[in-house]
């Protein structure tokens, strides 16, 4: 990777980020602020995060290939690089079949999109790819700086590292709830996971990891929910996050559930005291 992302990053969609949270997360010591959802091709939301921080890297996770014109996206990348040199990483991905009416030949679409970014002079070592399955993981290793898997487990991280080999970025996302009451924590987790457990790319990946249809039904089994959303004290959650590093991750990207905006900051500060 051409820039240092740090060992831990934070992921949120644009509506949860804001100048106060961005600055606080950087101050707590996290290396990267990941902008989730489907940021628009003008990258204005990423620009806000860059302007709100001093040294932290900002990455998109991810810009949806079906929605963003690659030529315009390349121009936006160069604008951010000019304004904030060395601090932006372009994360792209194929999105979800269920949300895209024109979803066809996803593998070829990824390859063609990367070709277009090549034409737009977006450096290979400053772009990353959302990847879950072996085929797309291999593309991420060949055509980008590496992979940013979402909704995974340390076992997926281990398998992904085997597929990628060494010297390729692997930055999996991991959800957490800072709550010691199992029932309360799982309720928060199930509420958030409800949409994701209906999307075929995630359910297929979870089945490859050994989870069954039973695990995926009715909001998810306790085993599935606990694997996808860590809960407990900051110390307990930190052990689960470090499991990704032990499995081969270069960075673990943390998404804290159950709070909004600046209210998320105390949780990230608590985790930072035992992680960073």
TrEMBL record:
<dbReference type="InterPro" id="IPR050766">
    <property type="entry name" value="Bact_Lucif_Oxidored"/>
</dbReference>
<feature type="domain" description="Luciferase-like">
    <location>
        <begin position="20"/>
        <end position="117"/>
    </location>
</feature>
<dbReference type="InterPro" id="IPR019922">
    <property type="entry name" value="Lucif-like_OxRdatse_MSMEG_4141"/>
</dbReference>
<dbReference type="Pfam" id="PF00296">
    <property type="entry name" value="Bac_luciferase"/>
</dbReference>
<dbReference type="InterPro" id="IPR036661">
    <property type="entry name" value="Luciferase-like_sf"/>
</dbReference>
<protein>
    <submittedName>
        <fullName>LLM class F420-dependent oxidoreductase</fullName>
    </submittedName>
</protein>
<dbReference type="InterPro" id="IPR011251">
    <property type="entry name" value="Luciferase-like_dom"/>
</dbReference>
């Amino acid at each position: 990777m051409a820039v240092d992302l740090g060992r831990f990053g934070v992921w949120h969609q644009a509506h949860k980020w804001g100048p106060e949270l961005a600055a606080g997360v950087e101050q707590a010591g996290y290396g990267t602020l990941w902008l989730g959802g489907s940021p628009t091709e003008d990258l204005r939301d990423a620009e806000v995060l860059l302007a709100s921080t001093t040294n932290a890297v900002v990455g998109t996770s991810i810009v949806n290939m079906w929605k963003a014109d690659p030529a315009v996206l390349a121009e936006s990348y160069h604008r951010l690089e000019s304004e904030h040199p060395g601090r932006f990483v372009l994360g792209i991905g194929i999105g979800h079949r269920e949300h895209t009416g024109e979803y066809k030949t996803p593998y070829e679409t990824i390859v063609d999109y990367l070709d277009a970014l090549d034409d737009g002079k977006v450096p290979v070592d400053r772009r990353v790819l959302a990847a879950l399955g072996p085929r797309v993981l291999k593309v991420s290793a060949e055509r980008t700086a590496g992979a940013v898997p979402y909704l995974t487990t340390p076992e997926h991280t281990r398998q992904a590292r085997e597929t990628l080999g060494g010297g390729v970025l692997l930055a999996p996302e991991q959800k957490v709830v800072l709550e010691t009451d199992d029932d309360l924590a799982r309720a928060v987790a199930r509420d958030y996971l409800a949409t994701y457990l209906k999307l075929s790319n995630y359910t297929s990946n979870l089945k490859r990891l050994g989870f069954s249809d039973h695990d995926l039904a009715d909001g998810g089994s306790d085993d599935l929910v606990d694997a996808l959303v860590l809960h407990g004290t900051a110390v307990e959650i930190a052990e689960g996050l470090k499991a990704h590093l032990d499995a081969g991750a270069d960075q673990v990207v943390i998404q804290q559930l159950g709070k909004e905006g600046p209210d998320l900051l105390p949780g990230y500060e608590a985790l930072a005291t035992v992680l960073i």
